[in-house]
């Protein structure tokens, strides 16, 4: 065992390097790579700020607040990944900030679909005779025997609560994890039964699945109604950010813990895996930002009914927006 320890570079057992150490070890390729990735993250943030100004001027409340929250998922993750790339020891803080923000976005996606329907009251009024499917992912996609449920105010409250709980609990557990980490009790590489990470992370995973279910139920049942506002590609972008920020990062972390991602001084295996994850995230979130900028930067006008249109779903959507307009006028 002592012989094996002597063959391991001491830096592979140390904490992630300081920011100055990262800068000093960069070669020409590293400088070019870090510069390009920083530029991508900066452009993502600037595009988001420009989009916020446009949404604020052209969209009425409260929809504009919801759109700004949802539209900020990719730029916020890209910005935090860029900070974590330059300052490796801040990775835990940047990752938890990104994850906590996205936890709120999951709830806001549900609210956005309701507001595109004209609000809660309009949604309930024109969905009271419908029955919603609940056998959808990620919890019950295989449970075909589950009955359809009526659309009621109580059912809508439960859907909102299911998504809201994750936004609250994720933030609370993130703060708790940081407190434990400062005391030396939280370590992602500690997989023993006495470690805090082995209990907190699976619990967060369960809360995540519970929060995704209500959003999937709402989308599966009203996607045709909201097709004219491009809800399907918007939902696809939300799902893509979810997969990249959660599943991809988890896979890279497992590979780093397993030693598949080799140590490269001054980066240990875990720190190097985290660096790879952040660099990939910046590129991916930059592309997602460009797509979402195109989807959300549109003219937000009330949809009018075409007398030659026989699409029942379009008629339903027009009624929802008309009811919402009548409520504002009243």
TrEMBL record:
Any Pfam family: Solute_trans_a
Annotated compartments: Membrane
Cellular component terms per the entry's GO annotation: membrane
Membrane-spanning segments: 28-48, 68-87, 157-181, 193-215, 236-256, 276-296
Superkingdom, natural source: Eukaryota
This protein's UniProt keywords: Membrane, Transmembrane, Transmembrane helix
Primary residence: membrane
Membrane topology: Multi-pass membrane protein
Name under which the protein is recorded: Organic solute transporter subunit alpha
